Amino acid sequence: MASIDIQNIKKAYGHVQVLHDVDLKIKDGEFVVLVGPSGCGKSTLLRMIAGLEEVTGGEIRIAGNRVNELHPKDRDIAMVFQSYALYPHMNVAGNMSYSLRLRKTAKEKIASAVANAASKLGLDPLLERRPKALSGGQRQRVAMGRAIVRQPKAFLFDEPLSNLDARLREQMRAEIKKLHADLKATSIYVTHDQIEAMTLADRIVAMHGGVVQQVGSPLELYDRPANLFVAGFIGSPGMNFLDATCETSGVRLKDGTLIPLSAPLALSSGAKVTLGIRPEHVVMSDQGGMRAKVELVEPTGFGIILHLSLHGLPFKVFTLDREALTAGPEVGVSFPAQHLHLFDSEGNRAG
Ligand SMILES: Nc1ncnc2c1ncn2[C@@H]1O[C@H](COP(=O)(O)OP(=O)(O)OP(=O)(O)O)[C@@H](O)[C@H]1O
Ligand SMILES: [Mg+2]
């Protein structure tokens, strides 16, 4: 296994720059998850690491060695895609062993590598089957098995579970986590799924418009998002934002409500800020608090999402309290100081 160093990586297609000076050091054995909106450059970055896409500027090092000019097959990296990309005319064992056969690995070695991966992935009874006789989840397992038998320096996953139904995703997610604990393989994993990102990652890299916004542990990004983009992107339902103005004793909302803060702000009085509060951190009350109109009640089974209108703007609350199901036309909301997020006029975290 190996570390992956990405230094000042740029990518342009003609005049369109899609990655801007991406810097990322991935430690040997680390599981890093890339998240960001569609088109922000996640797949492009993975493909450059794999050697499937040319680098416009900067350097990629795998295990300390520059690989920019290296052919994909010489980088010793395995990629697992959303489309499983299995060979339809080969059975499971044939698909899994293909890369080793190409390398003319000894027969006994191939057999033991395939047997080993098959038992890890629960594929033993399926080794003779062709891909068309497998379910989506089984195909994805074969794609992973094919990556594992190569014992590559690193694994790159590009939304590997997004074709699977919710139940199967949940199961595969847990299996990937177990597999990582077992193999300790350096992994970069792209996903749109918040839970996958939070549960699998040692560190999450949040990207937007080809620029890395924040790198940190899942809870660092959740608890202390570095800017408005990360604050709004991580967490579901997403964080609420309200415009406010700084005062010595707190921040004042547009309707005149003063929200006290737990610590003094480094911003001067009168500075414009954005106040953020997660739906699950809002405290609701029948009386008191800021009055908000109830627009919609969404029971999710696990909890309840209330869509409110606060000062005329959409505002969400998430609660486990079933009484919210029968909420009246109005509820009171208040914001505990320890759960407030503040962002300056540039959108960066303030305090
Ligand atoms: N061959 C290409 N030529 C021109 N532009 C490209 C090419 N490949 C990708 N792009 C552009 O580069 C940007 C990044 O694409 P990329 O596929 O990396 O996004 P992504 O973050 O993986 O998105 P998604 O979540 O939808 O998969 C997009 O704006 C895309 O249109
Ligand atoms: Mg992509």
From TrEMBL:
Task: Spell out the InterPro entries in the cross-references.
Answer: AAA+_ATPase, ABC_transporter-like_ATP-bd, ABC_transporter-like_CS, ABC_transpr_MalK-like, ABC_transpr_MalK/UgpC-like, Mo/tungstate-bd_C_term_dom, NA-bd_OB-fold, OB_MalK-like
Query: What is the top-level taxon of the source organism?
Result: Bacteria
Subcellular localization(s) per the UniProt record: Cell inner membrane
Report the record's Gene Ontology biological process terms: carbohydrate transport
One Pfam annotation reads: ABC_tran
Q: Which Gene3D superfamilies match?
A: 2.40.50.100, Nucleic acid-binding proteins, P-loop containing nucleotide triphosphate hydrolases
Task: Report domain ABC transporter positions.
Answer: 4-234
- Sequence similarity: Belongs to the ABC transporter superfamily.
Q: PANTHER family attached here?
A: MALTODEXTRIN IMPORT ATP-BINDING PROTEIN MSMX, OSMOPROTECTIVE COMPOUNDS UPTAKE ATP-BINDING PROTEIN GGTA
> What protein is this chain from?
Multiple sugar transport system ATP-binding protein
- Taxonomic path: Bacteria, Pseudomonadati, Pseudomonadota, Alphaproteobacteria, Hyphomicrobiales
